[in-house]
Amino acid sequence: MELPSTSTPTARAGCVELTQAPAGVADPCTMVIFGATGELAMRKLAPALYNLKGEGLLGEAFAVVGVGRNALTRERYQQEIDRGLGKFGPTPTDVARAKWLSQRASYLTGSFDDDATYRRLREHLAQRTDAPANVLFYLATPPSLFEPVIERLASVGLTDESAGAWRRVIIEKPFGRDLDSARALNQRVLAVLREPQV
Known about the structure:
By secondary structure, the chain is an alpha/beta fold.
């Protein structure tokens, strides 16, 4: 999901001033959230998506797939999103906008270190004919899981862009513990992803 925000320099009174070009509506996209029931997802991601919709930056072609260890049904996950928006979203919460977001969500239970989770995710994405083919994977997980998740996504073909749809991965901070571990993580990530995908 690319939300362009290009800065254009303009001359003014002998100095350079940056002006923001208006952002456009995001590409059609399915957002897969690893760690979907965690605090980051509920406290930050759900309200951010709610706000993007309110700003007109998310179009109708948008879906969410939550992946987490908690055994939840789709309906229960949708209730969790509604509850998270009620608790962490703006006050008052626009009920219609909250429902717009939660009704686009599905859920997959699985362990992040189990290859079967990624095979089931691949099948889940293929079966959701209502979900856009472009996929954004958001790693709202502990840093120790960044490498295993990315490597398993690649191993089942979920990072492959040869069919024309884009695939992106967002890695939450911290990116490594120090310079050496950050460089090592960068090498592991770029072994399976192209730089524009990260």
